[in-house]
Amino acid sequence: MNVVDLLLKLLSYKSLTPDDAGSLKFIETYLDGFEATYVNKEGVKNLFLSKKFGEGDHLCFAGHVDVVPAGDNWDTNPFVPVIKEGKIYARGTQDMKSGVAAFVQTCKEVENFNGRLSILLTSDEEGDAKYGTVIMLEHLKEQRMLPDYCVVAEPTCETKFGDAIKIGRRGSTNGYLTIQGKQGHAAYPEKAINPVHQIAPILEKIAGINLDNGDDDFAPSQMVITDIRGGMEVTNVTPGSLKLMFNVRNSTKTTQEDIRLHIDKCFHDLDYSLELTQGSYPFVTTRDSKVVEKLTSSIYNVTGIKTKLSTAGGTSDARFMGAFGIDVVEFGVINDTIHAPNECTSIEEVEKLCDIFRNMVKHFN
Q1: What is the pTM of this model?
Q2: Does pLDDT of 279 surpass 90?
Q3: Domain 172-280 is of which CATH architecture?
Q4: Catalytic-role residue among 28, 125, 154, 327
């Protein structure tokens, strides 16, 4: 079985979050020389496959087998992969069974490695991720088996295969702000306290403003207003309160406390309450890390492209690796049809991705 055959097999599993649909057992059997450990909880399956070749570093490949629902407007059955004009169409081709196929096939073929090779797979990345990768990492920490380095094979390329890897991710902080006023009649505004009027001159101090200046790795942390609502949807009653929601994709230079202090500076004269929740925390792997250098070198060896080091985009399970002190990078196929109808990736990209992982493993130690 080659990497394309393997990908077609994985795509045939209807592994909607958190159901792996039997795909993890298949991968365990396929890598029969690797020791398998399952840590399952609340219907989520997590598989760790490991093989010690030598006394050197522990390199882990990680990813997820679960996919989002297919939705409508597909030209073909989303769980019966179809090859057309050099592309493979099915749910999960880009996100991220192409990456899983590439590193599973790489590990299948490895004969020599001065260290330990492993694979960490979950069936709950597209969901809440509460019982996914993080649960397995906690188990590995207890067993003193945490990897030194990790490659998460999420789709990272932007317009050309090989043009971008991710060396970190911004955090995500959600804000829920409530301003209390006093409801009244629109004809008698002097008898009411209108929170819409109160917030109007303050909006320019929060909407779209940067909370830091960014750095070589991160864009500035920007406050993005996502929702404002208040009132009764009538024209003659002023609202008694106003609710505002916002999100900050924060770098390592802005913390939750920084956000709270900025809000207080802007709203201290008003009757307000603020709730902040942290969806994920920011992390970054240094540019001189071994895993960054080896991956970028392998991309150049296979494609001739000098890849960009990025921290853009949303969250991924790499955030858990970073939280456990593991040097982690992300690299996979072009990201342009994930979660969309007719999701697809090219055969050429899948084969090159596997070539890059082979090259990386060969030259890692």
Answers
A1: 0.87
A2: no
A3: 2-Layer Sandwich (3.30)
A4: 125
